[in-house]
Every structure is written in structure tokens, then in C-alpha cells.
Amino acid sequence: MKLRKSPQTFVVLAAFQQTPGAWKYGYDISKDTGLKSGSLYPILMRLAERGVLETRWEASEDGRPARHMYRLTTSGWQYIRQTLPAKPRGGRLQPALGGGKI
Hints:
The protein has 102 residues and is α+β, with helices and mostly antiparallel strands. 42% of the residues lie in helices and 14% in strands. The radius of gyration is 13 Å and the shape is globular.
């Protein structure tokens, strides 16, 4: 699997490493990583295009717009296990490049 190995991509992958089977909203990933949407969503799209993430839309029952959700695929989890160190300990992940300012 060929991925761009930017520091921001590794931070996004580490966010999924925390809870491998869970679906995540982009907003929650942004909070976990400190990445702004202009950096985060292109990374999420590339990871989905390369089969690292699967995506789905979650409809809202109270009239709000549907939300896009992401989760690791089996091959994405294998890629993380080969590429990233063991799970980081503690709460929030280290923001990419100086506090998430990109």
C-alpha cells in the first residue's frame, strides 16, 4: 500500500489506532489530532481511496444533515501495525507540526 507519509497522516492514523474498530466522525478526529478541516479531510479522502478507511453516511433523526463517518479497514489496521509504533498512552494525541497549525 502506497501512502503519503506526512506527519499529519501519521497523526490521523494514530487516532484510529486508539480505537481500531470504532466509527469516527471527522469532527472527533479533528479534536483528537488538532488538525483543521482543510488538512484533515483531504487526508481522510486519500486514506479511503487507498482502502485504509471505509466510510459511511449517518443520517440524523432530528433534521440535521447526515454526517460522514470513518473506520479502519482490515488492510488499514495491518498497515498501521506495520508502520506505527505501539498505541500512544494518555489522552490527546500529539498535534501535527506545532500544535496543529499547518
